[in-house]
């Protein structure tokens, strides 16, 4: 039974025994084989979905676990067991005064009320711990309600400074969550997100967890975002036919919105400027919007526009020219905005040049990338204890070659792999553009797990494995191959610290389970991984997102290595 927004009716049937037993599911390897489920009718499927707990590591699951932290697991489990987990004490559209007790990793606040008939969490955007707020409930769900913020009744001056807000759409647009927070506080909160993610998802004992380092700031806190994707819905048939909507008009009809989603909805808001985007993107946005308005009635379905900050196309190469001159010219030049999905983008990260198709992946905050790549290089070099210096780098999920190329001076050979063939074409070309021969830096298209077949001649103890997977993290075959290969150092970069924490936990546990394997009697074991450091990077100022870098090191039975790791961490 779905929530009924018109009546506020949210009483659910008691969860079936399987959902009760599920309570807090143990984290499993992401692609663990499951028995095929029996055929279910539509209503059975709906019921099953309604009763199921959220998928592990999904945003709903992150919220669910943090609701558990607020209410206490025993209380939540008792409610799941007796079927009262959806019996909200609040009515649809009820207005309430509440206290914010925590900030969720998703960026929303978790609030409770002493007046509530039973302990219950209300999730509200744009408010901060310690604040008293007035809210209106718009949805009731399992052990929590969702509500709109009506008013901050008592702000928390230790956190909130509304004079910092730079965007007039802040508070309605779903893009930013933290504009009212001083930047130092944003960085602290992002560190807390990493701490919570490892607590909730890694299954690691506290002793195995190094202190999470302070979050590396972005040199730019506004005007940093090198890519934005405003979108719009196509006009309906009725709107297209309506004679009061003149065709080819440059006037934007009132009902037509180009921009970003309104918070908590899939509805597009009309947004004509975005202050976190780079200056050239902000300058170009009005023309891109005007073009969409002019062609409005030609669109048959929704459109996602793209604007990327780029250096202008490269001038023709001059034989024998000093690369430093090209770098100086790029630093001095005026940027352009690439708006054609089939166009190409040109970008420098420190001295390194990258060109890639507009529609493919590249990190969206150019300003922070030099500190990110330098930090990774420094951590790799800081290998504690005895052992040879690393000579080989494997860059799995390499995109257009950012890490492979930027880290190449530290290695004799580099191999990268990536699923997208167009990104791999770009990576290969980027290696050449930066004067790196294919015998030293080579890329191949394919699934990340396939890289281990291609690097059979890389010495594992002198190899660094860098992984930077998409939000869903690594799959089980990749983790199995990683464990079989046993690179001495693994650097795990991720824009989703929850899947990172899950995977790091699985890698550490997996390596411990087979640490002695592969060695006969009297032979040395295979070593096991320890988590040496975790640090957040603020690639996304003003938002709740954080990029996280975890460094794992293989520890042999050698004495003193673990102590040395603790000292460097
Ligand atoms: C977060 S991006 C990182 C790219 C690159 N490291 C960078 O920083 O620019 C993740 C990349 O993984 C690629 N990818 C997704 N699934 C993959 C898979 N199974 N095997 C290899 N690459 C994959 C995506 O195409 C994307 O380019």
From TrEMBL:
InterPro entries: MeTrfase_TrmA_AS, MeTrfase_TrmA_CS, NA-bd_OB-fold, SAM-dependent_MTases_sf, tRNA_(uracil-5-)_MeTrfase, U5_MeTrfase_fam. Belongs to the class I-like SAM-binding methyltransferase superfamily. RNA M5U methyltransferase family. One of its GO terms (biological process) is RNA modification. GO terms for molecular function: tRNA (uracil(54)-C5)-methyltransferase activity, S-adenosyl methionine-dependent. It comes from Mycena belliarum. S-adenosyl-L-methionine binds at residues 363, 397, 418, 468. PROSITE patterns: SAM_MT_RNA_M5U, SAM_MT_RNA_M5U_2, TRMA_1, TRMA_2. The active site is at residue 495. This is S-adenosyl-L-methionine-dependent methyltransferase.
């Amino acid at each position: 039974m779905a929530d009924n927004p018109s009546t506020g009716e949210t009483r659910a049937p008691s969860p079936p025994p399987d959902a009760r037993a599920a309570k807090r599911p143990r984290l499993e390897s992401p692609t663990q084989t499951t028995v095929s489920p029996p055929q279910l009718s539509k209503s059975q499927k709906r019921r099953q979905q309604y009763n199921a707990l959220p998928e592990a590591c999904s945003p709903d699951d992150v919220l669910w676990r943090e609701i558990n932290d607020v209410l206490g697991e025993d209380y939540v489990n008792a409610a799941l067991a007796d079927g009262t987990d959806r019996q909200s004490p609040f009515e649809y559209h009820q207005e309430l005064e509440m206290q914010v007790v925590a900030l969720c990793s998703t960026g929303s606040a978790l609030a409770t009320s002493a007046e509530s008939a039973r302990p219950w969490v209300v999730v509200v955007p744009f408010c901060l711990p310690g604040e008293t707020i007035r809210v209106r409930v718009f949805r009731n769900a399992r052990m929590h309600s969702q509500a709109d913020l009506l008013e901050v009744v008592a702000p928390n001056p230790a956190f909130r400074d509304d004079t910092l807000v730079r965007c007039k759409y802040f508070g309605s647009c779903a893009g930013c969550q933290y504009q009212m927070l001083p930047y130092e506080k944003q960085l602290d909160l992002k560190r807390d997100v990493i701490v919570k993610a490892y607590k909730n998802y890694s299954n690691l004992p506290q002793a195995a967890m190094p202190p999470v380092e302070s979050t590396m700031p972005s040199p730019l806190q506004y005007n940093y975002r090198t890519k934005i994707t405003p979108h719009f819905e196509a006009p309906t048939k009725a709107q297209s036919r309506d004679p009061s909507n003149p065709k080819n008009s440059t006037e934007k009809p009132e009902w037509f919105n180009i921009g970003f989603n309104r918070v908590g909805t899939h509805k597009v808001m009309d947004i004509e400027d975005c202050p976190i985007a780079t200056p050239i993107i902000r300058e170009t946005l009005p023309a891109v919007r005007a073009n969409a308005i002019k062609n409005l009635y030609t669109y048959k379905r929704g459109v996602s526009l793209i604007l990327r900050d780029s250096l202008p196309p490269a001038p023709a190469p001059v034989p024998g020219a000093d690369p430093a001159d090209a770098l100086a010219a790029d630093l001095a030049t005026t940027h352009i905005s690439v708006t054609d999905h089939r166009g190409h983008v040109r970008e420098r990260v420190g001295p390194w040049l990258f060109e890639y198709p507009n529609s493919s992946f590249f990190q969206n905050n150019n300003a922070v990338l030099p500190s990110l790549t330098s930090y990774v290089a420094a951590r790799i070099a800081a290998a504690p204890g005895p052992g040879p210096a690393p000579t080989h780098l494997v860059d799995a999920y390499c995109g257009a070659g950012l890490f492979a190329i930027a880290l190449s001076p530290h290695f004799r050979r580099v191999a990268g792999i990536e699923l997208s063939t167009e990104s791999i074409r770009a990576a290969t070309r980027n290696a050449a553009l930066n004067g790196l021969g294919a015998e030293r830096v080579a890329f191949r298209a394919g699934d990340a797990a396939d890289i281990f077949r291609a690097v059979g001649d890389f010495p594992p103890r002198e190899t660094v494995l860098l992984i930077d997977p998409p939000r869903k993290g690594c799959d089980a075959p990749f983790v199995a191959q990683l464990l079989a290969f046993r690179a001495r150092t693994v650097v795990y970069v991720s824009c989703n610290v929850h899947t990172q924490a899950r995977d790091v936990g699985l890698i550490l546990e997996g390596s411990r389970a087979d640490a002695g394997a592969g060695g006969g009697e009297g032979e040395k074991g295979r070593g096991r991984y320890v988590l040496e450091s975790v640090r957040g990077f603020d690639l996304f100022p003003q938002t709740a997102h954080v990029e996280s870098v975890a460094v794992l090191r293989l520890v042999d039975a050698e004495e003193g290595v673990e102590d040395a790791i603790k000292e460097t961490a």
